[in-house]
Amino acid sequence: MINPFFFGSSERQLYGAYHPAVGGGSRGVVLCYPWGQEYLRAHRAMRFLASLLPEQGLHAMRFDWYGTGDSAGECFEGGEPESWIQDLEEAVDELKDMAGVKTIAIVGLRMGAAVGTQLAQQRNDIDRLVLWDPVVDGSGY
After folding, report:
1. pTM of whole model > 0.90?
2. Sign of CA dihedral 92, 102, 96, 62
């Protein structure tokens, strides 16, 4: 079951899709999409992954960065690392509130992996990272 919703401030509305764990669960996973053209190519795989995680007892949430997908904002608006970290922080807090979990794992693809790593260094409630083909050189990216 997928529960679509909007979250964040009224000035910075983000689109999210919550996939509740089958039979409950005590862990949450936030999926972080890549950016730009890679988002379009990876959307189906990330959605499929989000549908598999609840079968393993994990609450899953995927979301669109501000200015992408179904989130508010125009493309390329607010597209700097500080705002991406803010978007992910909002998503982590939202999943914790919705699912009642205390710790979160982040699965990040490409740019999503880089942002996930940065946020995980700032918070104690992110205890696992899955870095899927991470961007390790921002200027080269």
Report:
1. yes
2. positive
